[in-house]
């Protein structure tokens, strides 16, 4: 048989050509029918083969790509960045996100082919179109963001419409706006205000406004627990840490709070030795149980509150200055009830409704009674107001609570207050005004000597007038009751 090629029979050559042709057609079929985009370049980055799907993906035809160099195509924006260029540089398999001229986003993997001499001869790129999945991911993120916003709004409204009221005064509206803003900001907050203004409620509201809302809210009154017990309550203790310790040890409230919120009420009462430990907690986010040498992590958010002047305590050496500045990052001052008198009727109505429901009654309060209650300065704030409303509901034997019912149980409230809607004898008005001044003065300054100094009268006069007020109050009580 005549040979067509040196060293190889003609028939064998035909067979090999047929095999290579079949292999090429199979590979071409695979490349053209796969959902992924496949390109092959030589060792210099010139495109040798591309799958049919590349035309739609890259925005140019197959014939426009074959024979072109990837450097040129990348520079013209057909695709960017070029995975082939990176593989040629680093000579290893790489993956990256690529954008094309047609607006597609591809996840591209470039695979180098290296011959037996260690020379890079081909780069095969397999690209997966992730445009739709990226869009779906973005839409999902936007939807989640929108859902979070709706959840937050629903939660805010639930808190505002909860079985509790905050008030409609300008000062309280500003506080709630601030609480909404800082709820999810992981910063240290201290609540300032007199006893009974609602500091614990604001602390719970901050917790509910935060992402920690599903976690525990743990409250501890630093002034209500004996000094020798508060350390173990806060930090816990190990087995055998001291006589009387629980056998298995005990978790402290800082640990019990987990990833929730711990509210340290009356922080000004915290003993000095524990102030050092609390400072460590705030700085290092770690604490030690009593009897342990291994720290545990503090993951809870800490909110503190006080009715004391911490600056004054610092000056007196009763409160650590460094701890004061650590706690005082975001101070929120809650004004006393007397400074937001417009909120008093709201609280009266709320407490009246609550008591009526509690005792299965339907009591009402007259307009004059509202004026009397609104005139008082409420040193005990909301807590005191709630107490008085409940006493009025329970003790009044009529459906409508009148001002005299208030005077019966609460002699500190002045009888003649507010606007002058009717005329009374000037002597009575003067006596009533004098009574108000004396009662407020003795309430504030505690001693008759101090009251005498302030009012510029003799101490004996103060004592005499206070005895008269006490006697009149007793007579009023007897006359109304018997």
Automatic annotation (TrEMBL):
Family annotation (PROSITE patterns): PAC, PAS, SIGMA54_INTERACT_1, SIGMA54_INTERACT_3, SIGMA54_INTERACT_4
Nucleotide-binding as UniProt keyword: yes
Keyword hit for Transcription: yes
Residue ranges of domain Sigma-54 factor interaction in the record: 165-394
Residue span(s) of domain PAC: 90-142
UniProt-recorded name of the protein: HTH-type transcriptional regulatory protein TyrR
Organism for this UniProt entry: Clostridium aciditolerans
Matching SMART domains: AAA
Cited InterPro entries: AAA+_ATPase (IPR003593), AAA_lid_NorR (IPR058031), Homeodomain-like_sf (IPR009057), HTH_TyrR (IPR030828), P-loop_NTPase (IPR027417), PAS (IPR000014), PAS-assoc_C (IPR000700), PAS-like_dom_sf (IPR035965)
One example GO MF annotation: ATP binding
Stretches assigned to the PAS domain: 23-73
NCBIfam families documented for this protein: sensory_box
């Amino acid at each position: 048989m005549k040979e067509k090629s040196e060293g190889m029979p003609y028939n064998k050559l035909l067979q090999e050509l047929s095999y290579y042709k079949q292999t090429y057609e199979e590979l071409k079929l695979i490349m053209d029918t796969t959902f992924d985009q496949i390109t092959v370049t030589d060792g210099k980055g010139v495109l040798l083969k591309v799958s049919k799907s590349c035309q739609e993906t890259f925005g140019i035809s197959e014939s426009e790509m074959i024979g072109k160099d990837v450097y040129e195509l990348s520079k013209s924006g057909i695709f960017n960045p070029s995975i082939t260029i990176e593989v040629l540089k680093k000579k290893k398999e790489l993956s990256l996100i690529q954008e094309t001229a047609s607006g597609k986003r591809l996840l591209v993997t470039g695979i180098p082919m290296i011959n037996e001499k260690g020379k890079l001869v081909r780069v095969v790129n397999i690209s997966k179109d992730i445009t739709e999945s990226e869009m779906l991911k973005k839409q999902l993120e936007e939807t989640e963001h929108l859902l979070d916003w709706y959840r937050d709004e629903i939660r805010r409204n639930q808190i505002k419409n909860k079985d509790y009221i905050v008030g409609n005064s300008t000062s309280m509206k500003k506080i709630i706006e601030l609480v909404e803003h800082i709820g999810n900001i992981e910063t240290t907050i201290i609540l300032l205000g007199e006893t009974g203004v609602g500091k614990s409620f604001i602390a719970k509201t901050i917790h509910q406004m935060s992402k920690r809302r599903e976690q525990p809210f743990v409250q501890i009154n630093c002034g209500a627990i004996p000094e020798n017990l508060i350390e173990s309550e806060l930090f816990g203790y190990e087995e055998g840490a001291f006589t009387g310790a629980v056998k298995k040890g005990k978790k402290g409230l800082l640990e019990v709070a987990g990833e929730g919120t711990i509210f340290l009420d009356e922080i000004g009462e915290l003993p000095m030795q524990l102030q050092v430990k609390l400072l460590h907690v705030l700085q290092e986010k770690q604490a030690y149980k009593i009897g342990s040498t291994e720290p545990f992590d503090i993951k809870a958010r800490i909110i503190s509150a006080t009715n004391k002047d911490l600056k004054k305590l610092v000056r007196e050496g009763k409160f650590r200055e460094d701890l004061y500045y650590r706690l005082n990052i975001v101070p929120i001052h809650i004004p006393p009830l007397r400074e937001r008198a417009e909120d008093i009727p709201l609280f009266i109505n709320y407490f009246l409704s609550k008591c009526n429901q509690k005792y299965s009654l339907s009591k009402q309060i007259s307009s004059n009674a509202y004026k009397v209650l609104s005139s008082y300065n409420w040193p005990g704030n909301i807590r005191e107001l709630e107490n008085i409303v409940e006493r009025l509901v329970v003790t009044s034997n009529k459906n409508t609570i009148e001002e005299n019912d208030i005077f019966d149980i609460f002699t500190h409230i002045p009888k003649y207050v507010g606007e002058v809607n009717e005329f009374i004898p000037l002597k009575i008005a003067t006596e009533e005004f004098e009574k108000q001044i004396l009662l407020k003065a003795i309430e504030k300054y505690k001693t008759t000597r101090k009251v005498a100094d302030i009012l510029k009268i003799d101490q004996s006069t103060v004592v005499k007038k206070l005895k008269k007020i006490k006697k009149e109050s007793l007579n009023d009580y007897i006359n109304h009751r018997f």
